[in-house]
Amino acid sequence: YDAETGSVLPTIYERTTAGALAHQALNLGQGFPDAQGPDWLLEAAAHSITHHEIGPPNQYAPGLGIPALREAVAEHYRRRSGLVLDPETQIMATTGATEAIAATILAWARPGSEVVAFAPFYDSYGACVALAGARLRTVPLRAPDYRPDLKALETALTPNTSMILMNTPHNPTGTVFSREELARILHLAAERDIVVMCDEVYEHLIFDDASHTHSPILTVPGAENVALAVGSAGKSFSVTGWKVGWLTGSAKLVNRVRGVKQFLSFSSGPAFQWAVAQGLQDDQGFFAENVATLKKGRDLLHSGLERAGLRAHSPDAGYFVVADVSGVSEHSAEAFCAELLTHAGVAAIPVSSLISAETPAEDPLRKLVRFAFCKDHSTLEEAVERIVRFT
Ligand code: PMP
Ligand code: GLN
């Protein structure tokens, strides 16, 4: 977002993928998997478009999403974590997590207020806060383990804070916030009567050697009427193009976001919603399989980056390894990424695109580069060879 001209610029993902295509480079930039999602799920989507017994699959869906999806989301969380959600009032389907995030921010970020987020953050948080006319204040996650500093969070909250944005498991560090950390954040928010949006799109991508277990924020005492959670089928089922997401929380909070969603998309496409409902009812072992494959990719990339002389962080979850490039480059992470693209044919993303523009030049977050490992292992192997040669 360019505050001077008021225009929204192409995202770092768009630019990186365009750069990768232009240079015929290996794309470890944008976080989408090379794999297509399980065949049975793709078949469910193909079926849903032509089978009318599931409702009119090609006309407007109800604003909250088709009942089959809301029921499947409710049942899924009940089974996995004992969370009880009313599908009639506490679940709203959205056009990807991206729409849930935008609608939630527009529902609470008053113009002139401050919104607090941990940095790095998913880029849409910063853009939507700016579009709402609010100001983003960030609390950094720091190496070596990138855990949230809750004292710093407390200091960042002011009487003018309208909401807290957080993301666990975290993009790009893979940090899984502990139940205690979540409880503390909820407490700080409740004391100030502000809401917490918790983006949980990587909830199904947690490795078996993770140092912390994931608790959905809505299962933590104190979440009611304070927290909203965001989920996405894109990451859970390796179908990022389907753009099926959902928002969960108390009926009161969800209803407020629903008001905004009406004027973003009105309603989200029903056919993919139906297919995702099938997947949530029974993932047929896909979540476990996917995590095992991703973990191999993580280890391959992490060890390769270390071999190339970068200081790489092995994540507990998600699609990304962040690595500090100061050992191999005196330049900024942006300059490193530009050279890596043109000289080595590998695209990656400088973490400086995922922090506030006000972050000081010497901040260590500006020396980090994000590499995606949700790619074919042969691609990762080739990318590692190129990076090793380059450094
Ligand atoms: N939040 C985070 C943290 C993400 O990494 C992404 C990208 N997948 C999104 C939200 C957006 O998800 P979706 O593609 O479902 O809109
Ligand atoms: N979530 C993915 C990432 O972080 C892609 C997001 C996007 O392309 N908008 O790379």
Automatic annotation (TrEMBL):
Cross-referenced Pfam families: Aminotran_1_2
Keyword Lipoprotein attributed: no
GO molecular function: transaminase activity
Lineage of origin: Bacteria, Bacillati, Actinomycetota, Actinomycetes, Micrococcales
InterPro entries: Aminotransferase_I/II_large (IPR004839), Kynurenine-oxoglutarate_AT (IPR051326), PyrdxlP-dep_Trfase (IPR015424), PyrdxlP-dep_Trfase_major (IPR015421), PyrdxlP-dep_Trfase_small (IPR015422)
Originating species: Nesterenkonia flava
Descriptive protein name: Aminotransferase class I/II-fold pyridoxal phosphate-dependent enzyme
Residues covered by the Aminotransferase class I/classII large domain: 26-387
Annotated keywords: Aminotransferase, Pyridoxal phosphate, Transferase
Signal peptide positions (record): none
Cofactors demanded by this protein: pyridoxal 5'-phosphate
